[in-house]
Amino acid sequence: MAFAFDETWCLDNYDSAWAKAVQSLKYTKQIAYDTGLAKAWFMRHQNSINTLQGLNSIAVPVPLSQQKLAQRGFNQSWEILKKIGRLTDVPCDAHILHRKHSSLNQAQASRIERLQQSDLFHIEPQFANQLNQRTVIVFDDVMTTGATLHQIAKLLKSHGAQRVINWVLLRTTTHDSSRTRRT
To answer: Which of 11, 14, 92, 140 is 20 to 30 A removed from 180 (C-alpha atoms)?
Structure first.
């Protein structure tokens, strides 16, 4: 299957030492890890950031549903992206993309189960015009099958995004790396 996104920039593989920091941030609310993870991601891609100059880009986090956000207390992807945004001068917005609640546990779902949930995401109508002819960067902490980011990229492009680039911290090792950049 061809993905709808154009490329993916990641910090490292999920089986790296970074996984513990991501898990601590996400599951034990050790929010201070967001700064270190953002800086590590930026340092890995600092030289590549220049390719975004003049592309009229905007960055959005993969959203959590309202229920998941209330349960966790924060969106780890947004917390990290805000800090990367300050380091890169790429504008970031957490209000454009929203997620409906799903009873499916994404961490344990198969790729097919994830792809079948094509209606989980939506664009807030008042922000839809902000996507037209832009490069939209989607930030997520972990990319497993690519299905979530594929669904988001399809949605963004259907609302006028010209390109969709994923910025992720960690990528599972069982994937098609043909579109993944590790610089």
So the answer is: 92
Q: Cα separation of 157 and 34, whole Å?
A: 29
- Distance CA(144)–CA(174), nearest Å, equals 8
How far, in Å, CA of 7 to CA of 178, rounded?
A: 9
Q: Distance (Å, rounded) from C-alpha 30 to C-alpha 70?
A: 16
Question: Dihedral angle at the C-alpha atoms of 86, 178, 23, 167, nearest 10 degrees?
Answer: 20
For 180, phi then psi, to 5°, come to -105, 130
H helices of the chain, where?
A: 18-28, 33-45, 66-72, 76-88, 111-115, 147-158
pTM comes to 0.85
Q: Are 106 and 114 in contact (CB under 8 A)?
A: yes
Highest mean pLDDT among 41-55, 100-114, 140-154: 140-154
Q: How far is CA 72 from the centre of its chain?
A: 17
- Record the tokens describing residue 25, joined without a space: 């941030």
End-to-end CA separation in angstroms for the chain: 25
Q: What is the pLDDT of residues 140-151, one digit of tens each?
A: 999 999 999 999
CB-count exposure of residue 45 (10 Å: 0-12, 13-18, 19+): buried
d(CA 153, CA 46): 24
